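Q: Got a minute? One more chain.
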Amino acid sequence: MDLNGLPGLTADGVCGVNGSGKIALWTQSAEKILGYSAREVMGRLSCEVFVERDASGNRLCYRGCHALTLVRQREPVEHVAMATRTKAGRLVWLDMSILDVPDTRPETWSILHLFRDVTAVKEIEALVRERLAPARSAAPPEGPPPPELTRREFESCG
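A: Always. Here it is, folded:
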């Protein structure tokens, strides 16, 4: 089965990486999301283009990364949200899935990275967390505490 035309049929960005970790496929959608042309990324190590970090700041893409190890062991890889930068330097959040494509030639792509820009979703989540966070306690009032009402004063208020 020829899979070479398949990656271009999605609006998600698609990056194909060969067995050496070098980019061998870069779709127009990938270019639209990250700003790099295929000519700029072809043959480069994927971890040079995707300098990604998770929400905790941990680096995700590096030579011998956890995801690559799972792919080589034929284990499924969970999708992950990661922060990276576009060619212009703008921070973007990507939701990335990794797919092993068996039986390809070593010089072509064998691992597909499918990704979409979820920056707006991440920004909305941060705004909601900020709005729902407990209010910061106000500074205590200056001066002595107000006197407590007597039972009679309390009853006359109601």
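A: Residues 10-131 form a domain with the Beta-Lactamase fold (CATH 3.30.450.20).
Q: Perfect, thanks.
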